Amino acid sequence: MGMLSHPDRIRIVQLLRHSGPLEVRQIRESLQLPASRLSQHLTLLKTGRLLTERKNGRQVIYDVDEPSVGDWLLQGLD
After folding, report:
1. Rounded to an integer, what distance in angstroms lies between the CA atom of residue 43 and that of residue 20?
2. I need a surface site. Which of 9, 32, 33, 68 has the fewest CB within 10 A?
3. What's the whole-model pTM score?
4. How remote is the C-alpha of 24 from its chain's centroid?
């Protein structure tokens, strides 16, 4: 799956799978990624329907879209 061909995107999916929904700032701090690079990766993962996004005021919260990703893919990341 091309969406997971970059190590940073794999790390994002793994983090969200293990931590549950996180706000963008929390993802950035946990993975130590520059904001611009994280934003690009989140956009690709959301467009590819691997992540869901919801807004809570000014916060943007991401989570793994498990029905879209499928157990077989998530198990391969562990």
Report:
1. 18
2. 32
3. 0.85
4. 9
Token representation of residue 53: 């996004």
User: Which of 1, 14, 15 has its CA nearest to residue 23?
Assistant: 15
H or E segment and range at residue 64:
strand 59-64
Amino acid at position 52, single letter: T
CB 69 within 8 A of CB 29: no
CB 18 within 8 A of CB 31: no
What is the layout of strands, in order, in the sheet containing 59-64?
A: 22-23, 59-64, 51-56
Sign (positive/negative) of CA torsion 62, 64, 69, 74?
Answer: positive
**Which two tokens mark 17?**
């799978």
The burial of 24, by beta-carbon neighbours within 10 Å (0-12 exposed, 13-18 middle, 19 or more buried), is given as middle
